[in-house]
């Protein structure tokens, strides 16, 4: 369910912060055809390998350093770096020695992350 009123301008602090688990917080903004998630990660977090069957994923590392694996290729991202996980391609991520902030974008929006 996409919200009836979609703001044109907003700030991270205008959105509800969710605690996913210890050391992982996020804010989610969902529009009609796209979704943005801003994550705050603690050091030394590991995210399991997974695949999105309907959603293309694009990410931008705002701060910190993170390792990513997409389609078997591993890379360390630094602030200003992007990654892309195409539909149907295995990927995962891990944080390194410092906290990290990551902006993830999904198209179409992930229904499992839309507020009811």
- Radius of gyration, rounded? 14 Å
Uncertain runs are none
Main sheet: which strands, in order across? 1-2-3-10-5-8
**Total helix count?**
0
Count the beta strands. 10
Fraction of helical residues: under 10%
User: Average pLDDT, to the nearest integer?
Assistant: 92
Structural class: mainly beta
Instruction: Give the biggest beta sheet.
Output: 6 strands, antiparallel
Q: Name the helix and strand elements from N-terminus to C-terminus, one letter apiece.
A: EEEEEEEEEE
Cα separation of the termini:
7 Å
Shape call: globular
- Tell me the strand percentage band: over 45%
In short:
This protein has about 120 residues and is mostly beta strands. It has strands at about 20, 25-30, 35-40, 45-50, 55-65, 65-70, 75, 80-85, 90-95, 100-105. A hairpin with a 2-residue loop joins strand 1 (about 20) and strand 2 (about 25-30).
Overview of this protein structure:
- The protein is mainly beta.
- 0% of the residues lie in helices and 50% in strands.
- It has no helices and ten strands.
- The chain has strands at 18-21, 24-30, 35-41, 46-50, 56-63, 66-70, 73-77, 82-85, 91-95, 100-107.
- Strands 1-2-3-10-5-8 form a six-stranded antiparallel β-sheet, with no helix packed on it.
- A hairpin with a 2-residue loop joins strand 1 (18-21) and strand 2 (24-30).
- It is globular, with a radius of gyration of 14 Å.
- The model has no long low-confidence stretch (mean pLDDT 92).
């Amino acid at each position: 369910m996409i919200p009836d009123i979609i703001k044109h301008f907003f700030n991270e602090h205008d959105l509800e912060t969710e605690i996913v688990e210890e050391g992982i917080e996020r804010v989610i903004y969902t529009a009609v055809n796209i979704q943005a998630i801003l994550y705050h990660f603690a050091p030394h977090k590991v995210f399991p390998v997974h695949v999105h069957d309907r959603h293309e994923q694009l990410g931008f590392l705002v701060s910190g350093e993170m390792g990513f694996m997409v389609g078997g290729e591993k890379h360390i991202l630094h602030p200003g770096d992007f990654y892309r996980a195409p539909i149907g391609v295995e990927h995962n991520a891990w944080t390194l020695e410092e906290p990290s902030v990551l902006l993830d974008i999904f198209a179409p929006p992930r229904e499992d992350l839309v507020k009811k």
